[in-house]
Design goal:
about 80 residues; alpha+beta; Pemi-like Protein 1, Chain: D; two-stranded antiparallel sheet; 3 helices; about 15% strand; elongated; SpoVT-AbrB_dom; DNA binding; SpoVT-AbrB domain-containing protein; SpoVT-AbrB_sf
Length: about 80
């Protein structure tokens, strides 16, 4: 675990090893007990393509399956 401290102007500098691993852009999410930094990819669309490269169904097929699952769960 690493530590970071705000400077006099309220800026937070992340340690070099964190920046090298996760990048330099983050979403800040407020939680009930703290905050969470979520890295933003330099090429978000490219990251999605890589993440879902092995998915063989179309978006419509995925959407239809999710809708059917939700209807089944609701007691169709």
């Amino acid at each position: 675990m690493s530590e970071a401290t705000l400077d006099g102007r309220g800026r937070l500098t992340l340690p070099k090893e964190i920046r090298e691993r996760y990048g330099e852009h983050y979403h800040i999410v407020q939680l009930h007990d703290g905050i969470k930094l979520i890295p933003i990819e330099d090429d978000p669309l490219g990251a999605l393509r890589t993440e879902f490269a092995d998915v063989e169904k179309t978006a419509e097929e995925l959407r239809r399956g999710a809708r059917n699952a939700a209807l089944d769960e609701a007691g169709r």
